[in-house]
Amino acid sequence: MKKKNMPSRIVFFPKGDYNIPSTRYRCVFYARELEKYGFSTSIMSPRSILKKNICIERYREAMKSIRELSQSRKNTIIYAQRTVYQSDFIRFLWVYKKLFNISVVFDFDDAIFLRRKKRTNRMLKIADVVIVGSHFLAEYAQKHNDNIYIVSTAIDTDKFKPAYLEKKAEFKIGWVGDGKTYQDDLIMLKKPLTSLARTHNIIFKIIGTKDCPKLKEAYGECKHLKVEMIDWMEPDDIPSELTTFDVGVYPLLDNEWNKGKCGLKALEYMSTGIAPVCSNVGENKYFIKDGKDGLLAKTPDEWETKLRVLIENTQLKEQIAINGRKTVEEKYSIHVAGEKLAEILKNEF
Asked: CATH code for 9-154+333-348?
């Protein structure tokens, strides 16, 4: 592509608001970092063009968006993050690109093509550049677009940082996320955790259990195992909460959807200075060196063994935590990802 003389203006279109992780990590945080490299950035909140309202409202909002995008149009890049759930937006983007030859980046961090295949494929064909969060996603995207880059869902290491708290008698194993989309994955840990609780004083804390009846039922009555469930937490409160964990867990069943997972939870744990134990699924296997900066498990028996090792070997747990923080600082911090993304965009546009 022809290089532009001036830094580009980037307009992010996220899937949702700040409470949506992909909006925070792959729009808000990227936008902040890109400004350090001379880009002008803005984020357009989802409006009725992206929602199921009456048609006249959708197209009024479309015209409003067009007017805003028309500012410095020749120097604008539309950065569409995971926008496959709104067919109107895809049509709007296609028309706008045809009319004004505007540059488009499509970014996604889950295997959304399993649930919105046609729309994902259309976005892949519309985009000039595609940014994905994992190797599995890149393999799929390459079938429809030749201009694919992997940029990790990176961590703000200034927010997610270690805190050296007073040790407590209970060994806290924790998880944080949107529980309703991980209920079966989390239930997988019930057997190994219950077994460990027979001989160790542990507590399992799950943050994000709103609308999770299946999960709450599964862990509602666990003999020996103490379980604490929190329905929801403010995103900005999560970093400090993670520092109370002794170990962070990231269980994933081995299925096609989970193969597209980018490992965000593991990176959050590592950045916060807590040892992660994760399923050997998705992007986890690419950035975790088993036994060095995290532990990988496949079966329930492996989960029990790996967790037991960290409960009983404090020195190993602490060394893994130190190594994990170093890995994130060197390769997966938002500062590293921001520099990489800025280089991609400057080279492409």
From this structure: 3.40.50.2000
